[in-house]
Amino acid sequence: MLGTAPGPQTPASKPSVARAKPTLPPDEAPVYGPFYGFHEPPFGPAADPRFFYHSTSHDHVAQDLLTAIRRREGCVLATGEAGVGKTTICRVVADQLDRRTLTSLLVEPCGTIEDVLRTVLVDFGVMARHEASTPATQEKLTGALASFLASLAPLQASAVVVIDDAHVLPRKVLAELPTLAAAGRLQVVLVGQPRLTRLLKRPELRALSQQITVRCHVDPLPADEILGYVMHRLATAGSSPRVEFDDAAVARIHELTGGVPRLINLLCDRALTRGCEASASMIDDRLVMLAAETLDLDPPVANGRAAGRILIASLVLGALMLVGAVGALWVFRASVARAIAQWEQVPAAPVAPAPRVPALLPPPPPAIDAPVAPPTDPSI
Question: How crowded is residue 370: how many other Cβ atoms within 10 Å of its Cβ?
Fold first, then answer.
């Protein structure tokens, strides 16, 4: 089962991270490349470590994976939404490992545990690629892997298997993965979407879940890191790019993509195409919206869902408070009845007397002129 491939050997030095600049066929190269001065697509779909952007979340997850692998801390779990950059992180981590850590990166789905073992044995050089199609039982494949891992001990080396898109693996395959870690000096890193976490809670996967010692999650890019991400990819694809994105365009990109790098790449690629057609050196909000129309891209409804969840939570909280109040009244109904009776026995406050209003005096009678006395004649 060791095949004709070379035996276990550690490379003299780790391969250089720098790679040759890819040369795309004319029909695959972006039409805006020469216009903006790009020697390769700045927003291509490939998970190229050279385009890795050191965001807060991506750096944190990459560091957690590196630390766990270097410490050989059993199984590791990394989750994230689709398109958030998990595969790129895996490739970056593989490039950062030293020459005494052999890596097998599984990016294609495997239907059986035998398929997983064959791919791992080919990656480690235990089995030649043309021998992978030879029928072999799980016991023989596991024995060949265990023999290979045992041969790493004198070299003070270890091996790690990174399984990308682990959430699409059949449950039977996931249930057999603990046998790989039990084979010897081998670590297993599971990378997948958040539903993988829920899947690991099933009873048949309890053994695998118990072996996971490190769990980390990759978040989308926040609004304040969108511009840095875009400029990093532009600078990587061209030494002196002749295009920029203004603040309104960056804000619109975050609104339309929710910070998911895969969507950002699609939207920016279309925006650059529109900008080239308009001979624009500045990508503004209008060009981004035109690009979004070609992709039929609408703003994510995460905020609406969050608002709905908040509303539902508020209603539930109000209902719980009401139920609690009714329950308290029922439990303390005797005390409440006594308090109500005491309130009813309290005499009412005396009514204040009405204020006395002084009576108005009648107006004085009009003055009557006195009669005039006749004059008296002293001679009479």
Answer: 6
Q: Are 122 and 129 in contact (CB under 8 A)?
A: yes
- Maximal C-alpha separation, the chain: 182
> Which neighbouring-strand residues pair with 106?
163
CA distance 138 to 116: 10
| Distance of alpha carbon 100 from alpha carbon 109, whole angstroms | 27
Residue 163: strand pairing partners: 106, 190
- Looking at residue 138, its amino acid is Q
Domains of the chain: 54-218 (3.40.50.300)
Residues in the chain: 380
In 3-state terms, what secondary structure has residue 75? strand
Q: How far is CA 68 from the centre of its chain?
A: 21
Q: How far apart are CA 100 and CA 14, in angstroms?
A: 9
Count other Cβ atoms within 10 Å, centred on residue 272: 28
pTM: 0.71
In the chain, alpha helices (H) = 33-36, 56-71, 86-96, 113-123, 138-151, 171-181, 195-199, 206-211, 226-237, 247-257, 261-277, 285-295, 302-331, 333-345
* pLDDT digits 0-9 by tens, 112-133: 999 999 999 999 998 888 777 7
User: Tokens 């003070």 identify what position?
Assistant: 156
Candidates 209, 218, 16, 10; CA nearest to 103 is: 10
Pairing of strands 75-80, 186-192: parallel
Instruction: Look at residue 145 and tell me whether its pLDDT is greater than 50.
Output: yes
Q: What is the pLDDT of residues 178-237, one digit of tens each?
A: 877 766 678 999 999 999 999 999 999 999 999 999 999 999 999 999 999 999 999 999
- 103, β-bridge pairs: 160
Task: Tell me which residue has tokens 């791992």.
Answer: 120
